[in-house]
Amino acid sequence: MRAARRAWWLRLHRGQLRGVDLEKVARRVRGYLADGPIPRRELVERLRSDGVPDAGWGGVGLWVDLLRIPPSGTWERRSADLYGLAETWLDLPRASEAEGLAHLARRYLGGFGPSPISDIARWAGVPPTAMRTAVEGMRLRRFRDERGAQLVDVPGASLPEGDVEAPVRFLPTWDAMLLVHARRTGVVPEPVRPRVFNTKTPQSVSTFIAGGEVAGTWRHDGERVVVEPFAPLPRSIRRELDDEAERLAELYAESPSLLHSTQREVQGRASRRSSGMDRPHRSQRP
After folding, report:
1. Is domain 97-153 in CATH 2.160.20, yes or no?
2. Could you confirm whether domain 2-88 is CATH 1.10.10?
3. Rg of the chain taking only CA atoms, in angstroms
4. Angle at 196 between CA 192 and CA 202, to 5 degrees
């Protein structure tokens, strides 16, 4: 898997990385971090001073295992920018490429199965042929979709009957149920996709699921949750949606830290935008 990802990265950035040996860059980074974690900015500056373009830092993690050192990327310390060598924190297992691909497939199917092998490969960033070879040696359940294409799933996984109604659910931004690589799920209808993902909101917007697909957006406004459906909803679904909105508003009221975190997230996103920066659970699947 690592070989495929490296080859992809080099193809993607070949114009910026002409003459750059990322094996040597990885050794430099390992040397920088030998005495302990270093902030990202300092790492990038050191590489620049050594003549390494920024694309070298962007891909060096495929040649040396890095870890964002805690506490970072938390509500208390928002910037996940302190890096260290993964081997100093984790007991990294020795595994073959085939074992690694099988592990990835099991993890993916645990959240998104049943799925075609092509979706697993696209999510993992590896060639479909490599993933297909790994999956063929696994003990999996196999199904056929409406078009006769094969779907695979882990043994013993829950699978609701086809007539089970999908409940109303409120989703935050970046929720895995909205995965772009798996459009086949139909969770985000194509006509509404530009209203969920666009150049102003590449991270998506807060949405709600009704009838098994994205049907509108929501926001917390003071003491209540305001919903904005994309189209008129049946009365039964509207009642369910309003009930779920009330429960979510109660959660905000009971958890002030959740409200403050959401406000900081919104403010941070607005700031990044103005400065120019910038799996569904099985019980929820339709």
Report:
1. no
2. yes
3. 22
4. 140
Task: List the one residue out of 102, 66, 71, 98 whose CA is nearest residue 84.
Answer: 66
Q: pTM score, two decimals?
A: 0.65
Q: What is the C-alpha to C-alpha distance for residues 110 and 121, in angstroms, rounded to an integer?
A: 15
Task: Give me the average pLDDT of each 10-residue run along the chain (286 residues).
Answer: 79 82 90 90 90 85 87 63 86 81 91 87 86 90 86 86 83 78 70 82 83 90 89 93 92 69 43 36 39
- Contact assessment for residue 10 and residue 53, using Cβ atoms and an 8 Å cutoff: no
Residues 6+ apart with CB under 8 A from 12: none
Tell me how far CA of residue 239 lies from CA of 42, 130, 220, 236, in angstroms.
Answer: 53, 47, 18, 5
Query: Which 8-state DSSP code applies to residue 79?
Result: -
Strands ordered across the beta sheet of 66-68: 38-39, 82-85, 66-68
- The two beta strands, 141-144 and 82-85, are unpaired
Q: Where are the domains of the chain?
A: 2-88, 97-153, 169-284
Q: Strand, coil or helix: what is 268?
A: helix
Phi, psi at 237, each rounded to 5°: -70, -35
